[in-house]
């Protein structure tokens, strides 16, 4: 399976054109779409996650790797759908109301996609109602809230309170993160989990679907 090893290496080195080419080659050689996803694209992103956590990779390397993963995924997605391969979970994510910071949120989003999740990214300045609508419309079971400001992190509580009010709190797990947050804050507002960085977010969210 040299082509899949090469594909994983392309993701790690962030070579988007080569990632697209090798994904196509693997499919042309008759490999199953799920195998190309798991042993090529996801295998590469897993290594990126480990390197990011150990400070061997920084934000730019992760963004470039994610771009390479997306290039391969673009070729693979229709084949996955044809083969009936389901994502390992649906994850709704957004930056909290009042907050326009999205670099960290985008990293979490891309790493989760790289881990095999379908990610519904609502963008920035997302209201409690918009989170609730997205959960309902997508049948999502896990949501992620990101905040970078001490003045906006408090708005995470409103998302949880709104879900309680409409009777949807028990059907979703809520993960929070962002530079000013702590595990204590997550506990205080009644979130189900806190992750300090994108790689930890992937581990946490994966543990929630297993
Ligand atoms: Co702003 N800003 N900013 N800013 N900004 C900070 C956050 C600040 C710390 C700068 C400072 O004063 N030293 C400060 C906040 C102070 C505070 O609240 N205590 C600040 C401020 C004050 C402001 C404004 C109010 C400034 C003003 O207008 N007076 C304003 C607010 C606008 C608004 O949001 N309403 C503002 C605006 C901006 C820009 C638009 C210019 C720009 C954002 C561009 C963008 O995101 N598209 C910006 C930036 C770039 C920053 C800094 C410099 C960098 C943030 C960043 O992207 N970091 C930041 C200072 C700093 O951090 N050095 C600062 C890189 C990113 C990869 O890290 O987002 O922490 P981070 O994400 C990490 C983890 O936190 C975690 O994983 C990521 C990857 O490991 N994580 C999650 C994040 N979300 C997660 C979700 C999870 C799990 C993990 O689960 C769901």
**Oligomeric state as shown:** single chain
Q: Span between N and C termini?
A: 28 Å
Distinct small molecules: CO-5-methoxybenzimidazolylcobamide
CATH H-level superfamily of the largest domain: Cobalamin-binding domain
Strand order of the largest sheet: 2-1-3-4-5
Over all CA atoms, what is the radius of gyration?
17 Å
**CATH-scheme architecture of the largest domain:** 3-Layer(aba) Sandwich
**Derived structural class:** alpha/beta
Tell me about this structure:
The chain has 210 residues and is of the alpha/beta class. It has two domains: 2-82, Orthogonal Bundle (Methyltransferase, Methionine Synthase (B12-binding Domains), Chain A, domain 1); 90-209, 3-Layer(aba) Sandwich (Rossmann fold). The chain has ten helices and five strands. It has helices at 2-13, 16-28, 33-53, 59-82, 103-114, 128-138, 150-153, 155-165, 183-189, 198-209, and strands spanning 90-95, 118-121, 142-146, 173-177, 193-195. The model has no long low-confidence stretch (mean pLDDT 94). Residues 59, 93, 98-105, 107-108, 144-146, 148-151, 175-180, 195, 197-198, 201 line the site of CO-5-methoxybenzimidazolylcobamide.
């Amino acid at each position: 399976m040299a082509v899949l090893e090469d594909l994983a290496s392309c993701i790690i080195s962030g070579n988007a054109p080569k990632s697209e080419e090798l994904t196509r080659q693997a499919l042309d050689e008759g490999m199953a779409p799920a195998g190309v996803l798991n042993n090529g694209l996801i295998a590469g992103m897993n290594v990126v996650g480990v390197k990011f956590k150990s400070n061997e990779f920084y934000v730019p390397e992760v963004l470039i790797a994610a771009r390479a993963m997306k290039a391969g995924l673009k070729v693979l997605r229709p084949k996955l759908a044809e083969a009936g391969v389901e994502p390992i979970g649906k994850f709704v994510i957004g930056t909290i109301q009042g907050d326009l910071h999205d670099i960290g949120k985008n990293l979490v989003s891309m790493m989760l996609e790289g881990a095999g999740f379908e990610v519904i990214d609502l963008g920035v300045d997302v209201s409690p109602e918009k989170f609730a609508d997205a959960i309902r419309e997508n049948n999502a079971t896990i949501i992620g809230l990101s905040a970078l400001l001490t003045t906006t992190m408090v708005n995470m509580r409103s998302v949880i309170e709104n879900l309680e009010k409409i009777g949807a709190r028990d059907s979703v797990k809520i993960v929070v993160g962002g530079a000013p947050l702590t595990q204590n804050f997550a506990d205080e507002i009644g979130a189900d989990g806190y992750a300090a960085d994108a790689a930890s977010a992937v581990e946490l969210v994966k543990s929630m679907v297993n």
